[in-house]
Specification:
Blueprint (H helix, E strand, L loop, with lengths): L1 E7 L5 H14 L3 E5 L9 E4 L16 E4 L5 H4 L8 E2 L4 H19 L3 H4 L18 E5 L3 H12 L3 E6 L8 E5 H10 L3 E4 L13 H4 L6 E5 L8 H9 L3 E6 L12 H4 L3 E3 L9 H17 L14
Parallel strand pairs: 1-2, 1-3, 3-4, 4-5, 6-7, 6-9, 7-8, 9-10, 10-11, 11-12
The protein binds NADP nicotinamide-adenine-dinucleotide phosphate.
The site of NADP nicotinamide-adenine-dinucleotide phosphate (NAP) has 30 residues, from helix 3, helix 5 and strand 7.
Amino acid sequence: MSVNVLFAGRDALWPEYEPALKAAFAKAGLVVDLRREFSPSKVDYIIYAPSGKLRDLTPFTRCKAVLGLWAGVESIITNPTLTQPYTRMVDAGLTEGMVEWVTGHVLRYHLDMDRDIFREDREWQVHIPPLARHRSVGILGLGALGSACAQALSALNFDVHGWSRSAKSLPGVCCHYSPAGLRDVLAQSEILVLLLPNTSATENTLNAETLALLPKGARILNPGRGALIEDAALLAALDAGQVGHATLDVFRVEPLPQDHPYWAHPDVTVTPHIASETRPVTASDVIAENIRRSEAGEPLLHQVDKARGY
Ligand SMILES: NC(=O)c1ccc[n+]([C@@H]2O[C@H](COP(=O)([O-])OP(=O)(O)OC[C@H]3O[C@@H](n4cnc5c(N)ncnc54)[C@H](OP(=O)(O)O)[C@@H]3O)[C@@H](O)[C@H]2O)c1
């Protein structure tokens, strides 16, 4: 039987997604009518991205699931017209990209690369960084992305500590949970990586009180979500030297406004929400597998718990 699938990502994504989705549907043995426009009452599944135009899901009365292309879910699951199950994107390509971004920026800090890259004098100043085994890295959030980053850093011998909502066990990673666990992780994070979702419980996880728990001069990477950090508190901690440097990929308002103090701060690197991107070929396999599962009456992969917020 054929199913009708509406692609509701932004127009620029279509040329790459159309062939990738069609190939994935064929591989999964699905007969799909895939279009960018449908009469809403005929749609069985919606492929969704917050960057697309679709906001009101009310007319999609026969839709069995909304299949997200993004890992982040805060904007869609708070949409009151979303009554269908929602799946978020967990994609091998997205995970691999995040591992590369996090590892690259952790190594920048660990090896103190800026010292040589930005040297303007001609002085032969030798500095030997410690080995990774003597550098502690904290990762807040041990989900699809945080756990992959934690394990990649552990494979490089970093002393990795992670924090999640529930207790976890990951080889080579010292796992913590609970408010006391957060304090333990912060107290030993020379480099701290934020990979938590944006929920009411995680907003301002880094604030004046928690930033003060970090070792003096700690470095921060935020590829998670802007709202995890109380911006004024981070700026004050940077000015006081409590935080040595921050690399921020995500912000409360994106694009980051031109006059935001992060742009001009000498101890902040801004990257424009590029830490990782969903990859059409691998993501299309996930979408196809979820349609196959739904049609077969099997549980969906990566279904978001709307009450929990992620
Ligand atoms: N910058 C980019 O380009 C980019 C790209 C992709 C994703 N992201 C962002 O990366 C973040 C992580 O994505 P993901 O796919 O790894 O998410 P995920 O699989 O849902 O994992 C979330 C992790 O955070 C933990 N967590 C949630 N609420 C918590 C709380 N209140 N206290 C302590 N821990 C909590 C969860 O704990 P449990 O394990 O106990 O549930 C889990 O370990 C998201 O915010 C996403 O939007 C950014």
